[in-house]
Structure formats: C-alpha cells, structure tokens
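Inverse folding, one chain.
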C-alpha cells in the first residue's frame, strides 16, 4: 500500500501545503489512515481518486 503525507498530497494536487491543509479537513476529502509522528497519512489511491473528482469539478466550472 502506498501512502501520502501532507507534503505529497500538496504536490499531487498541485497546491501549496497551506491549501492542502485546508483541503484535507474538508468533509469530502478521504479520511486519513493513521496519524504518525510526521502527521496524518492517507492512502495514495484515495488521494488520486479525490484529485480526479476535484479536477472534474474544476473543469466543469463548479466551485470546490
């Protein structure tokens, strides 16, 4: 299983760490798998799926 911490989430979504910190707290963002000393971690597959849905919303002109 591949996982992402906040820095990897930000990089994958193409946003700043600050913006990623806001996005991961949204109710539509996948729940973290666990919290480690480096912070929360997420399934990379879940983050990729979220990113695809987010791109679709942005491409259709709907707000995040």
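Residues assigned per position:
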């Amino acid at each position: 299983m591949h996982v992402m911490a906040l820095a990897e989430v930000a990089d994958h979504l193409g946003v700043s760490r600050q913006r990623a910190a806001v996005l991961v707290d949204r109710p539509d963002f996948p729940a973290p798998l666990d919290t480690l000393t480096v912070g929360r971690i997420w399934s990379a597959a879940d983050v990729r799926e979220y990113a695809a849905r987010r791109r679709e919303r942005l491409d259709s002109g709907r707000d995040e």
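The chain has a mean pLDDT of 92. The chain has three helices and three strands.
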